[in-house]
Design goal:
Elements (H helix, E strand, L loop, with lengths): L3 E5 L5 H11 L10 E2 L5 H5 L3 E7 L18 H4 L12 E7 L12 H11 L3 E3 L2 E2 L11 E2 L2 E2 L2 E3 L8 H16 L4
Parallel strand pairs: 1-2, 1-3, 3-4, 4-5, 4-9
Antiparallel strand pairs: 6-8, 7-8
Bound molecules: flavin mononucleotide.
Length: 180
C-alpha cells in the first residue's frame, strides 16, 4: 500500500485533474491513485497516516455535494461518516480549487470546512499557502493571512497550476517524506 492517500471531491472534474497531476509526480509506493470521496470507504480513508485532500468550492462558498447542486454526493456527504473518527497523529495537506473572478467574495471558502473538520479531530494540518498572486475580495480560507492549503484557480490562472503544485509539494516534502 502507498504511504500517502490522495482523495478529492469534484463536480466538473477539475479537482480530479489536479489530483492526477499530483499522483503523476510520485510512484505507487509513495502516493496512492486518487480516489473520489464518493467512492471511498471509511476504512480506505482511515488507513493512511498521511493524506492529501482536494476540494473545489461550489454553491454559495460550500463543499461539493447535493446542497451545492452537484449531480453526485461528495465531501458534504462523506464528512459526516468520519464524524466520530480520531485523526490524532495524522498529517493532512489540503488543496482547493476556486474562481477568484466569478466568486471573489467567497474565494476557496470550502477549504476552511475541511481544515476545521480535521483540525477539530486531532489532525496536524500542513501546507498553508501565501495569498499573494490572487485578486479577490474575501476568503474564509485564510488563517493568519495564509490560505489553509494550496490555492488553485483553473478558471483564471490555469497556466500557473503546475508551477504552484511544484512549489507547494516541495513545501510539504519534509512532512510527507516526499522524494523531492
Ligand atoms: C455553481 C458554482 C458555484 C461556485 N462557487 C464558488 C465559490 O463560492 N467560491 C469559489 O472560489 N469558486 C466557486 N466556483 C468555482 C469552482 O470552484 C471552480 O470552477 C472549480 O475549478 C470547479 O472544480 P471541479 O471541476 O472539481 O468541480 C463555483 C462554480 C460553480 C459552477
Amino acid at each position: 500500500m502507498a504511504r500517502i492517500g490522495l482523495f478529492f471531491g469534484t463536480n466538473t472534474g477539475k479537482t480530479r485533474k489536479v489530483a492526477k497531476l499530483i499522483k503523476k509526480r510520485f510512484d505507487d509506493d509513495t502516493v496512492a491513485d486518487p480516489l473520489n470521496v464518493n467512492r471511498t470507504t471509511l476504512e480506505e480513508f482511515a488507513a493512511y497516516s498521511h493524506l492529501i485532500l482536494g476540494t473545489p468550492t461550489l454553491g454559495d462558498g460550500q463543499l461539493p455535494g447535493t446542497s451545492a447542486d452537484c449531480e453526485n454526493e461528495s465531501w458534504e456527504e462523506f464528512l459526516p461518516r468520519l464524524e466520530g473518527f480520531d485523526f490524532s497523529g495524522k498529517t493532512i495537506a489540503l488543496f482547493g480549487l476556486g474562481d477568484q473572478v466569478g466568486y471573489g467574495e467567497e474565494f476557496l471558502d470550502a477549504l476552511i470546512e475541511l481544515y476545521n473538520f480535521f483540525t477539530e479531530r486531532g489532525a496536524r494540518l500542513v501546507g498553508a499557502w501565501p495569498s499573494e498572486g490572487y485578486e479577490f475580495e474575501h476568503s474564509a480560507a485564510l488563517v493568519d493571512g495564509k490560505f489553509v492549503g494550496l490555492a488553485l484557480d483553473l478558471d483564471n490562472q490555469s497556466g500557473l497550476t503546475e508551477e504552484r503544485l511544484d512549489t507547494w509539494l516541495k513545501s510539504i516534502a519534509a512532512d510527507f517524506d516526499l522524494p523531492l
